[in-house]
Amino acid sequence: MVVDGLDEADRAVDRLFHALADATRRDMLRRCGRGELSVSRLAAAYPMSFAAVQKHVTVLERAGLVTKERRGREQLVRTDPDAVARARRALDALESAWRARVDRMTGLLSEEEGGQEAPDTG
Amino acid sequence: MVVDGLDEADRAVDRLFHALADATRRDMLRRCGRGELSVSRLAAAYPMSFAAVQKHVTVLERAGLVTKERRGREQLVRTDPDAVARARRALDALESAWRARVDRMTGLLSEEEGGQEAPDTG
DNA sequence: GTAACGTACAACCAAATGGTTGTAGATGGG
DNA sequence: CCCATCTACAACCATTTGGTTGTACGTTAC
Fold it and tell me: How far apart (Å, rounded) are the C-alpha atoms in residues A52 and A40?
């Protein structure tokens, strides 16, 4: 898809929601809320290979949803407490953006189909 | 990937976050909040084919983020006002699940297997 | 009626995703 | 030291995703 017209903020939101769009990863977030869960221990909870779990953790990490911390030969995974707040902020931004548009016309759009729109992107 | 161990609620959340994990689709949500936009008109706003835009709209629709309504030969797209609320609820459920987990236990997560099949949160 | 518009959908393609196995590097225990 | 454990990462594969073009069909305008 060669995304090149997006700024880093957009891509961060992409990664955030993409990471959340998988039941296994959401379950990992639940399990790692208390922190201190090694990747191996986490992997034991799922019917897939260790490498697959590693990849999921990487996705979560790059999305900023978990952090990893080395302790000896183990890598401890823990859900970032601020993660949901960040996701919520992304949702809020989305909502307020479209609400703003709705707001400007909440009363006056009765039969006005289309009147003033100007999708001036082209 | 032939997901078959997930219930419909999980798959709905998958679709919801997946739909949100794309900057083009998020922009569509913003544009369609303010009123009904036909798919063609929407398509004019993006540097891609009409068919590609159609696919994005389908993804948004299957995620419950927009609804389509026929008017003559046009198909009007509008963002579901409850959509963000639903996404937020999904986030809340996630967060409270892991907070509960942090809360009520700390040592019994050793032999937990079976993964997402039994996140006994009830 | 015919042409133009708006939509639907199929076929196709490149790239990303999610999984596997295998190999190799650190780290800790006997 | 040797071995088991934990992690990292590469190579590979099947499916999905996101895009394209082309075709078909209903609706509106002329």
Answer: 11
Q: Does B52 touch chain A (CB under 8 A)?
A: no
For chain B, list the domains and their CATH numbers. 8-83 (1.10.10.10)
Confidence of residue A77 (pLDDT cuts 50, 70, 90): very high
Q: Do A121 and B44 touch (CB under 8 A)?
A: yes
Interchain proximity A20–B23, CB inside 8 Å = no
pTM over 0.85: no
List the one residue out of A76, A64, A54, A51 whose CA is nearest residue A18. Answer: A64
> Are residues A27 and B115 in contact, defined by beta-carbon separation less than 8 angstroms?
yes
Instruction: Return the closest-CA partner of residue B95 out of A75, A86, A63, A41.
Output: A86
Which 3 state secondary structure label does DSSP give B87? helix
Inter-residue contact B35 to B67 (CB < 8 Å): no
Q: Which of 70-89 (B) contact A at CB < 8 A?
A: 71, 79, 81, 84, 87-88
Residue A101 tokens, joined: 């548009």
pLDDT at B38: 96
Q: What is the tens place of the pLDDT at every residue in B51-105?
A: 999 999 999 999 999 999 999 999 999 999 898 899 999 999 988 887 765 555 5
